[in-house]
Specification:
With about 350 residues, the chain is of the alpha+beta class. It is built from seven helices and 18 strands.
C-alpha cells in the first residue's frame, strides 16, 4: 500500500502535516455484477461482516433514465406535503456536515419543510457551485414518497426492513457507524464510500458520544484536509480502510457497525437505502447502553472500574449458557431466553431506576 496521505511539496524535507486522503492507495471493496435484485435474500454476503459493492443492482429502476431536472420534478410531484427535517449549510462549509469551530454547536442549520420545496431549491441552484448545501438525510420513504416503495422493493427476505431516502447536492458526511445492516442504492449522482471495520474506531479520532450531528458519534478527521499532527492515529485506520466509487444503479452493502465516510460528488444526488437488524427491536438500543455504561462505569475510579470488567466480559461479550446451568431455564432472567414481554418489563424497570 502506498503512503496514505499526500501533500504539496513545499521544498522542505518534511512533508506537510495537512493533506487529503489518497484514495488510490486504499483497498477496494469487493464487487459483484449481475446480482438479481429480486433474489437478494439468497445471497450469503447479506449476512456477512464484509462490505460488498453490487454493480448495476438497481439500474432498471425508472429514475435512472431521468436527467436531474426530470428527477427532481418527479420527486416533488410524488411527495407528500408533510413537513420533514433537512439540513442547510453555508457555502464555506463546502458540503461538510460537521461541528462549528468551537464544537459547541454545528456548522449547519436544522430546518423543516416539504420535500417538494427541497427539490425545487435543488433544481433552481444545481448550476451554482457556491449556492450552499442542502441535505435531506435518512427520511422515511413511506412517509414522504407514498407508493414509491411498492415499485422499488428489493427482495431481502424480511418484512421489517426500513427504507429511507437521501437527497441533496455536494456533501461530505463524516465517518460514522450505524447499528443496522445497510443496503444503499444510488439513483442519481456519484458517491464515494470509505469504510473502516469496527475495530478501527479509536484510530478515527471520534468526537463526543452524546453531542453529535445526527445521533452517532463521528470521526473528527476532515478527509480532504487531514491534520496528521492532531490526528496521528488516523494513518493506522487508513491501513484497514476500503473504498468504493458508486455510479447511478450501483449499490453497496455495509455491515452493521462498520464506519463509513460518504461523499456525494454531483450537484444532484439521490440514494435510497434499506436498513435491518438481526435482533428484535424490543431489546433496545446498544448505543443507549453504551452511553449509560460510559456514564455509570466509565466515571468510576480505576480499581472500581476494573472490578466490573469481568462481569461485562461474562454477561455481555462471552456469554456461555453453561455458566447458568445451576438455574432452571425459566429463572435465568436476562441471561436466558428473553421474549418481547420480558424485554419490555426489564426496560421499564431500567427506566424507573434511571429516573431516581
Amino acid at each position: 500500500m502506498n503512503a496514505p496521505l499526500t501533500g504539496t511539496d513545499s521544498g522542505d524535507a518534511t512533508p506537510s502535516s495537512v493533506a487529503a486522503v489518497d484514495y488510490a492507495s486504499l483497498a477496494e471493496v469487493q464487487e459483484y455484477s449481475g446480482v438479481d435484485a429480486g433474489n437478494l435474500s439468497k445471497q450469503a454476503f447479506l449476512d456477512g461482516n464484509e462490505p460488498v459493492v453490487l454493480r448495476g443492482l438497481v439500474a432498471h429502476w425508472p429514475e435512472l433514465a431521468m436527467d436531474d431536472a426530470a428527477l427532481l420534478a418527479y420527486l416533488g410531484e410524488a411527495s407528500s406535503d408533510t413537513p420533514m427535517p433537512f439540513y442547510t449549510a453555508q457555502p464555506e462549509a463546502q458540503g461538510r456536515i460537521f461541528y462549528n469551530d468551537t464544537m459547541t454547536g454545528f456548522n449547519f442549520e436544522r430546518r423543516t419543510g416539504r420535500l417538494r420545496d427541497c427539490c425545487e431549491w435543488l433544481a433552481a441552484h444545481r448550476q451554482e457551485p457556491d449556492a450552499g448545501t442542502l441535505y435531506v438525510g435518512s427520511t422515511a420513504v413511506d412517509g414522504w414518497l407514498p407508493g414509491f416503495r411498492d415499485s422499488h422493493e428489493l427482495e431481502l427476505g424480511r418484512s421489517d426492513a426500513l427504507c429511507s431516502l437521501w437527497l441533496g447536492n455536494r456533501t461530505r458526511i463524516a465517518a460514522h457507524y450505524d447499528f443496522p445492516r445497510n443496503l444503499a442504492c444510488v439513483l442519481a449522482g456519484e458517491r464515494r464510500f470509505t469504510l473502516f471495520p469496527p475495530e478501527a474506531a479509536l484510530d478515527l479520532h471520534i468526537g463526543p458520544l452524546e453531542h453529535t450531528p445526527s445521533g452517532q458519534p463521528i470521526s473528527l478527521v476532515d478527509f480532504a484536509n487531514v491534520d496528521s499532527s492532531r490526528f496521528p492515529r488516523f494513518a493506522n485506520a487508513l491501513q484497514r480502510a476500503m473504498v468504493a466509487e458508486l455510479a447511478p444503479g450501483d449499490a453497496i452493502y455495509i455491515p452493521g457497525m462498520w464506519w463509513h465516510h460518504v461523499e456525494a460528488h454531483s450537484t444532484v444526488n439521490l440514494l435510497v437505502n434499506y436498513w435491518w437488524r438481526d435482533s428484535a427491536l424490543h431489546f433496545g438500543s446498544p448505543q443507549m447502553a453504551l452511553l449509560h455504561a460510559a456514564l455509570a462505569i466509565g466515571q468510576l475510579g480505576d480499581e472500581e472500574r476494573q472490578s466490573w470488567h469481568p462481569l461485562f466480559e461474562k454477561l455481555v461479550f462471552e456469554r456461555d449458557a453453561t455458566d447458568w446451568a445451576h438455574l432452571d431455564a425459566d429463572r435465568r432472567g436476562v441471561m436466558g431466553v428473553v421474549g418481547e414481554r420480558e424485554a419490555d418489563a426489564l426496560r421499564r424497570q431500567i427506566a424507573r431506576q434511571l429516573r431516581l
